[in-house]
Hints:
The protein has about 100 residues and is of the alpha+beta class. It has 2 helices and 5 strands. It is elongated.
Amino acid sequence: MTNRTVRDSESGRLVDYAITHEVMEQDGTWHAVARIDCSHGEVHRHVPPVDNNGELKREVIRVIRGQGDVENTYQYSLSEIYDNLEIHESRWRNGY
């Protein structure tokens, strides 16, 4: 799992994050099977199934109206990824 955070250099407040669950295939290649991030002005999850472009399906969790929305969703997002590790991997491996 990869957890990337960006904090404001002056205040130390969380301003951006991306939490990604990745799995490694037998050939050594890594694949993202679930992700929650703060791009595009919203906190959203990417989960199986993949769309026609091979991208994980995107679901909005919260529109970001202020910096507090990023901070307030971080712990929830981290817990959601951890709590569903087996489900995300199973869905990705089974194509749904």
